[in-house]
């Protein structure tokens, strides 16, 4: 059952009123639901300096799914209109189990035409829709907040074309990233992006959230590698921008609107993407550094000496290593160090790459920038080293309640934030850890506590956002804003820009049915 | 004096009426102006299958610059409000001398604040504005069509910041590309783009037109390398998206709207751009092939063997070589061949790069894919080889009247278009030549005739666009649409997409003052 709060003017009184509503909802609907609801209340009401302060998410006056609506969907998608609460369970809750909606309908279209018919109908009926890919997002963007209809791309999983000359892949939005990677690998190509969630995430979701990941340093962002896309607009109109050309300057590049808009402007149904050749040689080095300054110097040296073959420069701190050892029983492959670096090279000539890597390692070991290290060239060992970086997120989930931040900063400042946060929180936190993509200036700051702790959250936010804004950083490097971060947008974007985003939303989705409560701050409504 | 035609409903009668207006203008304003005017009439009225057929550019009902307006501008920009017709001459006509406006005011702001004040004033007064960078565009996008005020970025030429750790350059929009290249070279970095027009073009114009150029194959498009920009909107509002972060997923990526919108949505005043390290080693090979099929096979082989160090794969045909020899007295550095390839490598290790290049050349010579070739490693010789590719445009201007097409196609089809066009035109054309960026699937098709020839144009268009559309190509790969190609947009974009572009234009520039008559087709008005 959904919490339905009629559209009210918001103010302090209203906020208090809504809080008591949530509390009474607790009694009616059981403990778990209310707990999720409270997280949301806390999240948006927390930050005093936020222009959106005082607004809490309330259910907007969308229609409620009726029996007649269900009849329509069942006729359109026989056997693919899911209403069984047990089957809906996993689609209503996010991967972190931090946000839970109460949708009663999950639709599983197979074609663009079906998506178009669904949206046309929902727009006319003013039914809210939550587009959902692999549901691996970390900011509550991929699940319903109230009773939005879940529109899953899971059955839109066909590769439509692959051109082995140009390396351009065209596929439906619901293809799982890892399946696409395997498909391409057999054809001697790779996907230009790779993420820890590759086994579940959908390419449509990757594009809709402008996912970054582990190969951005080398192959650039999806804004460059996505050559075309097809999206269905809120009114059901199909926008075919599914070009397969590297260059196309005929008018405004509309596809960019949908990349990174988190399903709020349209539902991506297909994409075409430029895929690099599979490298002939891959090497991974796992190194230890005694300070972050030495890590930075190693990065500078690495860019010069590995140049065009450098494909990843990742880091984790000793606290992350501790969690990997403790919770996942992974063994540290080198001696204990304050910082660890994972470097990957990918190139066309194994001998050249090995020589470059050897020269680089010799230089950084001789100059004591790096204190210990190991190198892998065979696939299983490469995977084992990558696990040290990729499984940090998983290790964290075993460490208690997680407060996750995904920050872009000038690269020389990324660890200062972790140090400052540790000092700032003192013994309020269980662990404060930092890892991420040094090559992209992207820090994943994670804070754990035994259980959810409002006092800890109050110490973290808005401190973390103020710190970021003071360095002209971004409060969301690659995770997006979703439900959890949308009201903090003003820490990274000026009001004129946010207002323009609101105008774009109104233009493309005048009834606001697409992924409501996400990405844009509440004060725009 | 400007041609002023009041806003009229368009139809066949109107078209005829406008044509006779243009003819009478001829008598008043002299031969040259009328000739330019006629080109415009022909260009837009030509294509029978174009949905915008029947519309011709007419002066929209903007205000006319009054003495009071001039007084305002002179007070705002003392000594930088140009009204002397001799000084305005070069800003009124494009580089190809194919489009000429009749603007009577050229404004040269130095700061974003001045641009903001100009636009706020023009928007209130409903005065049309033509933003102008280096005026090197090839589609008539950079000059006024009627009496639009020319807003030049020439004095906005300051580097604002350069971060030598990240390689991120922030500068005003009017910086000349070559000056930026020189600035960076001294700091061991390079610009991620390079064009033949680098000595004149402005970075703001490059970004506004999403310029492609010679390094796109390696460093990707400006959609990936431009990290931030500042733009002034039609109403004078300053939109500060001048981020210097590699990753930033906080809301919609507004800067993408301005990249490639040809000054129709806002005036770009500053950009930040990610610059690659200067390569340690550069090599250029100039090769001959006996067929285009062999050229394609050489390309495939090259991508495999040169991999990550390949930075350009360009081609020209023997007709281009003939023009270079005849008009510019450049000597062919190798034996005559039907096709010529220019390959550039850029890498971090000279010995490795030379070995890769040597292995590749041995393979393609042994297998007879390539019939002759020469390699340059020193800078002067590299420049001489690049001149064979870069100066084709210049050679063409000496060959008569030029009909220029800039087409994206699946790479295997790019030369078929030249062959088909030659057959199609027979002896109607003087020369039909093809050159361009094989690595990007981008053909520059050029057709020359002794003088302007309406019958020849009628034979070329819409044939060239229909041919492109049949291959799902783009009728403008990197040049943009400007004035000349805007009505052909439907050959590459579906009507829903074009309509959405119109909505975006209306949202950002409701009075339509920014670069009117450009990019969007006439039928959207």
Automatic annotation (TrEMBL), chains A, B:
UniProt entry keywords in alphabetical sequence: FAD, Flavoprotein, Metal-binding, Mitochondrion, Oxidoreductase, Transit peptide, Zinc
Enzyme class of the recorded protein, top EC level: oxidoreductase
An annotated GO BP: malate metabolic process
SUPFAM superfamilies tied to this protein: FAD-binding/transporter-associated domain-like (SSF56176), FAD-linked oxidases, C-terminal domain (SSF55103)
EC number: 1.1.99.39
InterPro entries: FAD-bd_oxidored_4_C, FAD-bd_PCMH, FAD-bd_PCMH-like_sf, FAD-bd_PCMH_sub1, FAD-bd_PCMH_sub2, FAD-linked_Oxase-like_C, FAD-oxidored/transferase_4, Oxid_FAD_bind_N
Domain of life: Eukaryota
Localization per record: Mitochondrion
Gene Ontology MF terms in the entry: (R)-2-hydroxyglutarate dehydrogenase activity; FAD binding; metal ion binding
Ranges where the FAD-binding PCMH-type domain occurs: 99-278
Pfam assignment, any one: FAD_binding_4
Catalytic activity from the UniProt record: (R)-malate + A = oxaloacetate + AH2
Cellular compartments per GO CC: mitochondrion
Cofactor(s) demanded: FAD
Task performed by this protein: Catalyzes the oxidation of D-2-hydroxyglutarate (D-2-HG) to alpha-ketoglutarate. Also catalyzes the oxidation of other D-2-hydroxyacids, such as D-malate (D-MAL) and D-lactate (D-LAC). Exhibits high activities towards D-2-HG and D-MAL but a very weak activity towards D-LAC.
Family classification: Belongs to the FAD-binding oxidoreductase/transferase type 4 family.
PANTHER family: D-2-HYDROXYGLUTARATE DEHYDROGENASE, MITOCHONDRIAL
Identification of the protein by name: D-2-hydroxyglutarate dehydrogenase, mitochondrial
Source organism per UniProt: Aldrovandia affinis
Lineage: Eukaryota, Metazoa, Chordata, Craniata, Vertebrata
